[in-house]
Amino acid sequence: MDADPAPRLRLLDxxxxxxxxxxxxxxPESYEVEKEQLPPGQHGDLGVTAAMVVLVSPLVIQAITAWxxxxxxxxxxxxxxxxxxxDSTTERRSLEINLxxxxxxxxxxxxxxxxxxxxxxxxxxxxARGDQ
Length: 132
Prior knowledge:
The protein is of the alpha+beta class. The chain has helices at 16-25, 58-69, 105-116, 122-129; strands spanning 8-14, 31-35, 50-55, 76-84, 90-98. Strands 2-3-1-4-5 form a five-stranded antiparallel β-sheet, covered by helices on one side.
């Protein structure tokens, strides 16, 4: 992933399966995987292996939405995310995404992601039009 002034998101506390699923949906140049780093002598959650840093773009947000939609057997899912600004400052957020109870679930999940991550709302229009 090249240095880019576009904002980035770090998706935290991902399992190996989550990383594998996201890799299949995301363009290879749009992400990097970070292995969980723990201080010596500490043990992490056995199901959590990594974080992914992704560039914010309509295609990436659409892929994250599709990944969440695959988890619809759950009522909701909590994502821990760091938004990384171009100046490298970070803002950590925990988002609870409701995956049920909508007539247009994909659009609803997309809106929840954009609002929860405080992204430019124009990204929703871009995704809806199919622009990259």
